Amino acid sequence: MTIVNRYLAFQVLMGLGIATAVLLPLFSFLDLLDQLDDVGKGTYRVEDAFLHTALLLPRRFVQLAPFITLLGNVIALGRLAVNSELTALRVAGISPIRISLAPLGVGLILLLFIAVLEQFVAPQLQQRAISSRAVALDKSAALGKHLGIWTRDERNIVRIGEMLHAKKAVDIEVMHFDDNGFLLTYTYAKYADLVADGLWELGDVTIKTFAGQRIESMSKASMSWRSFLNPDDISTLTKSPESLSPIELFLHVRFLRATGQEADAYALALWRKAGGALTTIAMLLLSIPFVFGSVRAGLGNKLVLASMLGISVYLLDQIIANAGLLLHLNPAFTALSPGLLLIILANFWLRRIF
């Protein structure tokens, strides 16, 4: 039985490899075409477009993992069915459930691999890709050129025009309010050095104080300011939710909620990472009835049906995620519901087949 399990696992791994070799280059080629449109702008060159696409490969693999799982398992089990190997295994007394354990075991290993990519590889490479592209195109990596980075806590609103690097900011505005929401002081600094955790050294400063009907203005060459932002918070603010690791997302969501800011987009991005794992499991379960439930259909027909299912699931996931943000639905419900629905569907289908 161990030999059979190893053989089945090897076939599933081969199927996953074939699916990866088809889907990942295809979507990376589309990424490359998109990047080539910007070649010639600023200092962005063809080499930069290829590098950007290469750095996004781990992120694309994570995004495509559910569909790679579906097609890979259909390819693996479909080949066994076409070669009558599944029939031989059934005649030998091995049940479909027992045969399905090998793909499930490979799927769990795949999920562990994806978790490592999601935490330690994909976010870092994606952030490097975004940063290098922004520098070459002379664009801000935050909200757009000249818009800056905005954040707040209970009594302060801060705008950072641009982060030159992790310890240097330019074009800073700080608005300080009282408990009733009235503006007390407005501070503008041309630049700031982050000298310690939460301590900023502002340079070329203008301070306006609002006292009743009077507005007092004063200038300083430099001054210290105790910020509610630490370097990690600033670094996170300049990154898109998708490019953050699960731990970074969790900490940033906690920071946003602690300071009374809108956190739904980042919370949804965090829960969608868990939702992606559920969808991968669901796709793995759905691939099994494709093979055992359609014995007369050829491998080509099974792959076409699996591809249609994958496209439908992708569109459904995108629609639910955007609708959830628009309607302010619970991020956990929005992110996990597609995967849970697919697992229920797969369970119902498996019961009918087996």
TrEMBL record:
Primary localisation category: membrane
Task: Give the membrane topology.
Answer: Multi-pass membrane protein
Q: Where in the cell is it found?
A: Cell membrane
- Organism (species): Nitrosospira lacus
Residues that span the membrane, as ranges: 7-30, 61-80, 101-122, 274-292, 304-326, 332-350
One Pfam match = LptF_LptG
Cite a GO CC annotation: ATP-binding cassette (ABC) transporter complex
Enumerate the UniProt keywords alphabetically.
Cell membrane, Membrane, Transmembrane, Transmembrane helix
- The domain of life for this entry's organism is Bacteria
Q: What is this protein called?
A: LPS export ABC transporter permease LptG
Q: Name one GO biological process term.
A: transmembrane transport
Q: Which InterPro entries match?
A: LptG, LptG/LptF_permease
